[in-house]
Amino acid sequence: MGSPQQRYQQILCKLRESNHKLTPQRLAIIDILVHSRSHPTVEAIFEMLQEDFPTMSLATVYRNVVLLKSLGEVLEIGFPDGSNRYDGNKPYPHPHAICVRCKKIVDPDLRALGNLTAQVRQRTGFKILTHRLDFFGVCRDCLQSENQTKGVGR
Amino acid sequence: MGSPQQRYQQILCKLRESNHKLTPQRLAIIDILVHSRSHPTVEAIFEMLQEDFPTMSLATVYRNVVLLKSLGEVLEIGFPDGSNRYDGNKPYPHPHAICVRCKKIVDPDLRALGNLTAQVRQRTGFKILTHRLDFFGVCRDCLQSENQTKGVGR
DNA sequence: ATTCCTGCAAAATCTTTGCAGCTAG
DNA sequence: CTAGCTGCAAAGATTTTGCAGGAAT
């Protein structure tokens, strides 16, 4: 629910509401987050910004990602290896399929997911705030190149 | 499928099969992992071992956890804050309910979970290797103490 | 006997923080 | 103006690694 442009505006609103300033660095980070389809890392965002902001600091990217997380405007996807990636398009919990080879992230749309949260609440007595559902595997592209590499013996 | 004792033996088998030695430190770490119902951190395991192994090193705990992970005999639960907890009882993927307040982890048994993996494979073309499904919220105990603290004004 | 393991300390990552100067509103 | 932000460097936190001595099989 939201084109990149809409998301961009929505985030600007949130920032104004919460008395945060719209610095060029901040706007550029947001721009990347809402336009990128690739769930970038902080490092990747930093590198993309090097051209336009040669003095950009990693700390600034971190600080802005933290801010946007706290406003609920980006979703953090924590990898088992400890690295994190960010989604500014769909900041709400949703399932991911993550390629362990190339690190690509795809968002499959799963029905049948509906009331899992309700079930957990019922079974555990927890008040559920959020969740994550991530599938790890090998994407089609990487499967293909694997086969090209090894199975050529036929 | 598997009492702590069974799990313990199963892990010893795996170790012998893979030519790993059964050192006292290793056995003690496994013992904690299979008996603990609390999904301990490396740090916590380390502390529990201090009494019996005063010279125990954190690195040793880390190395053994890595080994057991690689054998598929412990499940790592990565927290959004970067810390990890470990489950030696149920080393296969299963849903968790995690209290963001006290860090308690509960395993709800969810039906309706059956063929999500198949759906993801179908929709994405990924070969799925594993997954994680974690719910974050506040457990009953913490909800209660919250209420005691604030809502007494009535 | 070997091979693998442990303990210690140093290194490696990734992320956060302190501070002085700068800037958006 | 003035609260909040940036850049830099230093500090933190967690996990990994190198190496020499030690232990399991």
Nutshell version of this structure?
The structure is a homodimer of 154-residue chains. The first copy, chain A, has 154 residues and is of the alpha+beta class.
Q: How confident is the prediction overall: mean pLDDT of chain A?
A: 93
Proportion of residues in extended strands of chain A: 15-25%
Radius of gyration of chain A: 18 Å
The tally of structural domains of chain A comes to 2
Q: For the record, what CATH class of the largest domain in chain A applies? A: Mainly Alpha
The first-to-last residue Cα distance of chain A is 47 Å
Strand order of the largest sheet of chain A: 4-3-5
Which key features would you list for this structure?
2 domains; three-stranded mixed sheet; homodimer; Arc Repressor Mutant, subunit A; 5 strands; globular; alpha+beta; Dna Ligase, domain 1; DNA-binding
Explain what this protein looks like in three dimensions.
The structure is a homodimer of 154-residue chains. The first copy, chain A, has helices at residues 4-17, 24-35, 42-50, 58-70, 116-124, 140-150; strands spanning 75-78, 84-87, 96-99, 105-106, 127-138. The first copy, chain A, is of the alpha+beta class and 154 residues long. The first copy, chain A, folds into two domains: 1-89, Winged helix-like DNA-binding domain superfamily/Winged helix DNA-binding domain (Arc Repressor Mutant, subunit A, Orthogonal Bundle); 93-154, 2-Layer Sandwich (Dna Ligase, domain 1), CATH 3.30.1490.190. The model of chain A has no long low-confidence stretch (mean pLDDT 93). In chain A, strand 3 and strand 4 (105-106) form a beta hairpin. In chain A, helix 1 (4-17) packs antiparallel against helix 2. Helices cover 44% and strands 17% of the residues of chain A. Chain A is built from six helices and five strands, in the order H-H-H-H-E-E-E-E-H-E-H. In chain A, strands 4-3-5 form a three-stranded mixed sheet. In chain A, strands 1-2 form a two-stranded antiparallel ribbon. The interface between A and B is large, with 38 and 38 residues.
